[in-house]
Amino acid sequence: xxxxxxxxxxxxxxxxxxxxxxxxxxxxxxxxxxxxxxxxxxxxxxxxxxxxxxxxxxxxxxxxxxxxxxxxxxxxxxxxxxxxxxxxxxxxxxxxxxxxxxxxxxxxxxxxxxxxxxxxxxxxxxxxxxxxxxxxxxxxxxxxxxxxxxxxxxxxxxxxxxxxxxxxxxxxxxxxxxxxxxxxxxxxxxxxxxxxxxxxxxxxxxxxxxxxxx
Length: 214
Description:
The protein is an alpha+beta fold. The protein folds into two domains: 5-129, Archaeosine Trna-guanine Transglycosylase, Chain: A, domain 4; 139-212. The chain has helices at residues 5-8, 39-51, 142-152, 155-158, 169-179, 184-192, 196-212, and strands at 11-22, 31-36, 54-62, 74-75, 78-89, 95-112, 118-129. Strands 1-3-5-6-7 form a five-stranded mixed β-barrel. The longest helix is centred in the last third of the chain and has 17 residues, at 196-212. 31% of the residues are buried.
């Protein structure tokens, strides 16, 4: 039997965690603002804040972000464990939280609880997590660094307060994968790559194509 890309990712560790299906792809070190209004997620965020734990962010494959009767949510198997780093009451009355990605994982099995909260047994990957030793960038990456600096300077992005190490090849790949305007499926495929050098090469090809297409 041929392994899928998700199955081929080297894994370490296992845990049962709550999953937050979104039409977004989060990478380690990335930050994502969320508006919370469904009771299942209000409970989830409250529990995470009380226990200093987190939950998994996964790209939706089928279904909607908001639970609907009779509609099943299906997610991509590779996601990112996230923690709440900021929260506030928004002008519209909803709870606003900002989460930060920490560790990539592979979903082995998932199911819905009675409150429709999606749960999953996940294996944490041996790559793509905060705290890995940095990989030095080379002079050939100066163009990518310059592009990332431009993207990160946008007011909406800078407001997130991400701490970006522009001299770390891993972070260069993570942040460009999130911030370059790509389809969600393309971002997901970049997340599923194990090798940071392969991710950078893929990004270089994508950027070259975007330039050629004008």
